[in-house]
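Problem statement: downstream parser choked on a complex file, so we are re-checking the raw output for the iron/sulfur cluster run. The parser issue turned out to be on our end (a line-ending mismatch), but while we're here, posting the original submission so the record is complete.
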Amino acid sequence: MQIIHSDVLIIGGGLAGLRAGLAARKRGQEVIILSLVPPKRSHSAAAQGGMQASLANSTRGSGDNEDVHFEDTVRGSDWGNDQIVARMFAHTAPKAVRELAAWGVPWNRVQAGDHTAIIDGQPVTISESTTAHGLITARDFGGTKKWRTCYVSDGTGHAMLYAVSDQSIAAGIPVHERMEAVSLIHDGSRCHGAIVRNLMTGELVAYVARATCIATGGFGRIYQSTTNAVINEGIGAAIALETGIVPLANMEAVQFHPTAIFPAGILVTEGCRGDGGLLRDVDGHRFMPDYEPEKKELASRDVVSRRMEAHIQSGKGVRNRFGEHLWLDITLLGEQHINGKLREVKEICQHFLGIDPSRQWIPVRPAQHYSMGGIRTTPDGAVYGLQGLFSCGEAACWDLHGFNRLGGNSVAETVVSGMIVGEAIADFCASPAGELTVSTALIRDCGRQAAEEFSAIARCSGPENASQLLRDMQQTMSQQVGIVRHGDALQSAVDTLKSLILRSRQIGLRCSRPGANPELLLAWRVRKMLKLALCVADGALQRTESRGAHFRSDHPQRNDADWLKRTLAYWPDAEQTRPTLRYEALDVLRMELPPGWRGYGARDAIDHPDTSRRQAEVDALRQQLASADRNTRQAALLAFRHHLPAHLRGDNARLGEAP
Amino acid sequence: MISIFRRPASSPPPRRLTLDILRYNPAEPERAPTLQAFTIDEAEGMTLFIALNEIRAHQDPSLQFDFVCRAGICGSCAMLVDGRPALACRTLTRDLNSHITLAPLPFFELIGDLSVNTGQWMRGTAERLQTWIHAVDRVSIDEIEAPMAPELAEAIYELDRCIECGCCIAACGTAQMRPDFVGAVGLNKIARFRLDPRDQRSDEDFYELIGDDSGVFGCMSLLGCHDVCPKQLSLQTQIAFLRRKMARLGFD
Ligand SMILES: Cc1cc2nc3c(=O)[nH]c(=O)nc-3n(C[C@H](O)[C@H](O)[C@H](O)COP(=O)(O)OP(=O)(O)OC[C@H]3O[C@@H](n4cnc5c(N)ncnc54)[C@H](O)[C@@H]3O)c2cc1C
Ligand code: SF4
Ligand code: SF4
Ligand code: FES
């Protein structure tokens, strides 16, 4: 077997992997990036709406800063996230946007003077100041107090990914395309790289590295209806799980996006509602204000998706031959706005629905969109359980998002975590622990094991069909582990998935072609995807509360007393048909923002016993430091800057804020 | 009135589609390229993405093709649809005859069946044309960003929308004759960086990159590229403009 060496192996060429690779490369490490597809085709390219960062340039963003961004993110997460990480993130996001600007991202800019915007269905005049003219502007997104989402029309992810990818080309980082990591090389405590399959030839290659980073994105394809790309199958997370030592955290925290076009599941951005679009039902009635009088269409995604499903259940859905949906109405934004700021939406409507969204309503229904859970890491991006293994981006549970991610916080996370984790990787490589000490016997063993896995599948002449198992899994997940969950359905999902796992060991192939054999690949992947599906379903079944995107109709309250903790799913034994679940408590006594009401959604949480004590401490500290500046006050509540690489610790300059 | 809306429209029986697909796997050179016919029933809203996946799931699990976003965003799925380069994922079968021919994009390395290696070619072109911002001044990311005219940012985005699908190359007469031609995709990128004030390269620098027959002077202005670009980039205008600029430099 061929062996390829580098200092750093990055698995994944999306925004997160590329940015982490760049950071490590700039520190002198030799980096190789692996990707299933050419990096610019990674699903980061599909992000439309934008990236959150508290620049506060536009009028509706004025007064914004790291504190407000932090609080919105924690509330959005339903207090499920790591507040240290949220602080590191909110602090670094403005730097990331500005860096991307310097790398050529054509962010939309503030235009001085009066403009008409549509807010709450009404035209409103907004005046932008001349001092802000030409600075990066922002749009409104759900769950945010300020207009904070920086954007490039509705091709934000595309523009970001191209800029970062071009930087990695400039830095001479090789990307090995059409290569799939199929297992990790490890000895039970240290990771030494990965066994990788060439998707064109079927050949296995060992990539050996001092540090390995998994940045393989989300796993939406375990669901039937998803906005994710067809390559988002979660194999990166699955191979980490299969080490038996690495946990996947909060896998039950799955986000459903309110506006996927029906039935294709292709996303139309939250920017549609941010820019003033409305949701309507079969009678043309705008129903969100009935449920969420304050935030209306712009409550957080979990809340809007849930309200939409409930509204459909109440008989107000629009029926077509594929099922039921609701309408997204952006006609009120006008043709000019749509042609300029919502171009991808317009193209998608034209090509996939044959309609013109400036004149017709768009059929939408919530679809799986984002995985908050993933490979559990420390704030440095180091993966639990294996030294030398890191993870960032959607594949990771760095735990910025807790149980619900805010729109625009994900592409921001990819670059911010890439900046931070890439530095941690370089630090690790430069430390004594980063020495390469792997034995060739171990590499050979791991390679042989991977090869055996494929040949066993190729040899098997069992009665099962991989595409059928995949469809059954996707259907089970969408129907029973979806937006509204219930113990009975979850139990039945777990049972079904367990039987699918058993059946997946009996897949017979029809085609025994060597090389790129799509059928062999599917049979191999579906077994991995089933494990992820079980982590989601079982995690959801055990979590007898509702938090963020995880909503249990049989346990509708958020229960901080029992469930303010992160699920950790392990798969220690390959023969298991169900994950081993453990839990990691969140420490209320170290929270800067103790649990409370989100400001939207239900208001009936069961308190954690420490909450009132911590709230009293926080209030006292705030009062004591009332005359201090906000950074001093913040540092007293939750010091975080020491977690950041030195060059990312500085204050962010803003218009109207004293330097 | 609403009940009328809710009644499913009576639909005519679905069309039977025949897809003739050019099959060839370079790993098996002993098998000559063949056109293989598959028939399927058309469904409402069917795209070539849906059709090809259905064929792979039910008829031939070995069929190779590339889809990623299936939303017309990522540029993976360009192929010749009835001889014309197009994104398969957003091609609706109802816009085609019931007899459809699919072939891989020409010019690029064939991986198998409908799958071609556009990625490698695009990376090579990016390295050759240095398609990144060349800035001399260092930018502090703690400071407020440099302002840019809003219209300029929008104009740059117009050119930045290329998804590197390769359709323009497949439709280009020059590219078929000159394998080193940078194509409309390459020229458009130069136009994009030239327009961007953050890139401090001069026209002389750009001339070095595209001032010959493998660059802007190789283009015969037949505009095959312009007609097939799925992002409707203004390739015609950009190429003509660049040629004028570069020709002037050539005379100086
Ligand atoms: C339609 C859509 C719109 C979105 N819009 C927004 C938005 O407006 N704002 C926002 O903040 N977020 C948005 N998101 C979310 C955001 O785009 C993603 O979470 C983010 O881009 C993920 O980036 P990533 O780098 O982690 O992963 P990806 O970009 O998915 O990249 C994963 C990479 O890993 C590679 N890979 C995967 N498995 C393997 C393997 N086994 N071996 C080797 N390589 C592998 C892939 O080839 C790919 O290069 C959107 C998501 C979707 C689906
Ligand atoms: S210029 Fe148009 S046709 Fe050519 S690669 Fe770019 S998007 Fe495709
Ligand atoms: S106009 Fe130039 S680049 Fe476009 S197809 Fe013709 S020769 Fe090729
Ligand atoms: S699959 Fe992405 S453009 Fe067709």
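For whoever reads this later: Chain A touches chain B through 83 residues (CB under 8 Å).
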